[in-house]
C-alpha cells in the first residue's frame, strides 16, 4: 500500500471532528448546482456513454462507500498517441458534515454505488472527439465516482449509524486497480476534478505524482475547487463552520495548501463561483430576511451594494492565489463568470462560443499549460467586462 502523506494523516484526524459537527449542509442548494452535472448544455451533440466498473478488489481492503457498497469508475480506453496517457477525473458533489447528513447521503449516488448511474456521458475534458477535446480525446479517460462524502479523504467509521468514511482507501484502491490495467505504463498523466473533486485533486496531487516514475509527465488540474474561507453576508464564516474541526487544523481550505504543492498545478475557477455564492457567501442561514435571495439565484438581480460585496470576494480570491501564481510551473484561468465546474460541460470546455480570456478558451489554456506550449496565468477583468461567460441562473 502507498504511504499516507502528512496531509492525509491530518485530514483523517480532522474528519473525525467533521462528521460530528453540528451544522447541516444545505442539500437543496447543492442539488441546484448538481443539476448542471455531466455536460448539460444547449449544444446539439451525441456524447459517448461509458459504463460503470465496480472495483471488485476494494471490498477486501475496506475501501467502500458510505453504505458499505463497492466504489466504481467509468473508463474509456486510450488509443494511438494517447494509449499511454491517462486522465483521472475525480467526481464532485459537496460534502456531508455530520451523521444525519451522511446517513441521508448514503441513500444517493453520492454515498452508494447502488444508486449510481450505470452509464454516464463523457463530455468536455472527457470527450472522445478531437473537435470537442483537442488535447485529451484519445487518452485513457477515467471518471472516479465520489461516494465517501469528504473529497476522497478520511479513514474511519460510525458503527452506530452504519457509516463508512473510507475516502482515502477508495482513492488508493482505485489507483491500484487502474495501475494494474495499464496506468503504471503512463508516459503522461493528469489528475483533475471539479468542485469537491477539484479540492480532492489538490489534496491528492503530490501523492498522485509519486505513483509514477520521475520520467513521466504528471500534473494536476483543479476546477472550481478553490473554496475560500470567506466572510459571508452576515459577517460570519459559513464555510468555516461547515469544515469545523478541519479548518481549525489549517489544512482543508485550498488557499492554505496550494503554495505547498510540489507538482505542477492548474487552478481553473470562476471569480464569482455559483456554489460559493449560494452556499458560503450568501446562504439562507446568513440571510434570514431574504435580502440576497434574488441576487444569489441570478446575478442580474444583484443591487449595486451586493455587487460590490461580490467584487470583494473576487479580490479575496486573487489575493489567495498570489503566492501560488509565482511558480513558473503552475497555471491559472480565473474568469469573471457566475459558474461552477467548467471542464465537464462541453459548452464551457471547448465549443464555438466557449468562455474565453484574451481569445483563449479553457481547453486550449489547459492544453498549452500541460504540454508546455505556453505559460498560462490568465486573470479576467472584473464583471461585467467578460461577454463570453456561460453564467448559471437558477429558478
From TrEMBL:
Signal peptide: 1-21
Top-rank EC class of the record's enzyme: hydrolase
Predominant cellular place of this UniProt entry's protein: secreted
EC number: 3.1.1.-
Matches recorded under Pfam families: PAE
InterPro entries (UniProt xref): PAE/NOTUM (IPR004963)
GO molecular function per UniProt: pectin acetylesterase activity
BP-aspect Gene Ontology terms: cell wall organization
Cellular compartments annotated: Secreted, Cell wall
Keyword set includes Glycoprotein: no
Keyword Signal: yes
Key words, A-Z: Cell wall, Cell wall biogenesis/degradation, Hydrolase, Secreted, Signal
Domain of life: Eukaryota
GO terms under cellular component: plant-type cell wall
Family named by the database record: Belongs to the pectinacetylesterase family.
Free-text function comment from the UniProt entry: Hydrolyzes acetyl esters in homogalacturonan regions of pectin. In type I primary cell wall, galacturonic acid residues of pectin can be acetylated at the O-2 and O-3 positions. Decreasing the degree of acetylation of pectin gels in vitro alters their physical properties.
Protein name (record): Pectin acetylesterase
Species: Gossypium laxum
Amino acid at each position: 500500500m502507498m504511504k499516507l502523506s502528512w496531509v492525509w494523516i491530518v485530514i483523517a484526524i480532522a474528519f473525525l471532528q467533521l462528521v460530528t459537527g453540528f451544522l447541516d449542509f444545505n442539500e437543496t442548494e447543492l442539488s441546484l448546482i448538481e443539476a448542471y452535472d455531466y455536460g448539460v448544455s444547449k449544444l446539439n451533440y451525441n456524447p459517448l456513454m461509458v459504463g460503470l466498473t465496480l472495483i471488485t478488489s476494494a471490498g477486501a481492503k475496506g475501501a467502500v462507500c458510505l453504505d458499505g457498497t463497492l466504489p466504481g469508475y467509468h473508463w474509456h480506453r486510450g488509443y494511438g498517441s494517447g494509449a499511454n496517457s491517462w486522465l483521472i477525473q475525480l467526481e464532485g458533489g459537496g460534502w456531508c458534515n455530520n451523521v444525519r447528513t451522511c446517513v441521508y447521503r448514503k441513500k444517493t449516488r453520492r454515498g452508494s454505488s447502488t444508486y449510481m448511474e450505470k452509464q454516464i456521458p463523457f463530455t468536455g475534458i472527457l470527450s472522445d472527439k478531437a473537435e470537442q477535446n483537442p488535447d485529451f480525446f484519445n487518452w485513457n479517460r477515467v471518471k472516479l465516482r465520489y461516494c465517501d462524502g469528504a473529497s476522497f479523504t478520511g479513514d474511519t467509521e460510525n458503527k452506530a449509524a452504519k457509516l463508512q468514511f473510507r475516502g482515502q482507501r477508495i482513492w488508493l484502491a482505485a489507483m491500484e486497480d487502474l495501475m494494474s490495467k495499464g496506468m503504471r505504463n503512463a508516459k503522461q498523466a493528469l489528475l483533475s476534478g471539479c468542485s469537491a473533486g477539484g479540492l480532492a485533486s489538490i489534496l491528492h496531487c503530490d501523492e498522485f505524482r509519486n505513483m509514477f516514475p520521475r520520467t513521466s509527465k504528471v500534473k494536476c488540474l483543479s476546477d472550481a475547487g478553490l473554496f475560500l474561507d470567506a466572510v459571508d453576508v452576515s459577517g460570519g464564516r459559513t464555510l468555516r463552520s461547515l469544515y469545523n474541526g478541519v479548518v481549525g487544523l489549517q489544512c482543508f481550505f485550498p488557499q492554505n495548501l496550494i503554495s505547498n504543492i510540489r507538482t505542477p498545478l492548474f487552478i481553473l475557477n470562476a471569480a464569482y463561483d455559483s456554489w460559493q455564492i449560494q452556499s458560503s457567501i450568501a446562504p439562507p442561514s446568513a440571510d434570514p430576511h431574504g435580502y440576497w435571495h434574488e441576487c444569489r439565484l441570478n446575478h442580474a438581480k444583484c443591487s449595486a451594494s451586493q455587487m460590490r460585496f461580490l467584487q470583494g470576494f473576487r479580490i479575496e480570491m486573487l489575493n489567495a492565489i498570489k503566492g501560488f501564481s509565482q511558480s513558473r510551473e503552475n497555471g491559472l484561468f480565473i474568469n469573471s463568470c457566475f459558474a461552477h465546474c467548467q471542464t465537464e460541460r462541453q459548452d464551457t470546455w471547448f465549443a464555438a462560443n466557449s468562455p474565453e480570456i484574451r481569445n483563449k478558451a479553457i481547453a486550449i489554456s489547459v492544453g498549452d499549460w500541460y504540454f508546455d506550449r505556453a505559460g498560462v496565468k490568465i486573470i479576467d477583468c472584473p464583471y461585467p467586462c467578460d461577454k463570453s461567460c456561460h453564467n448559471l441562473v437558477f429558478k
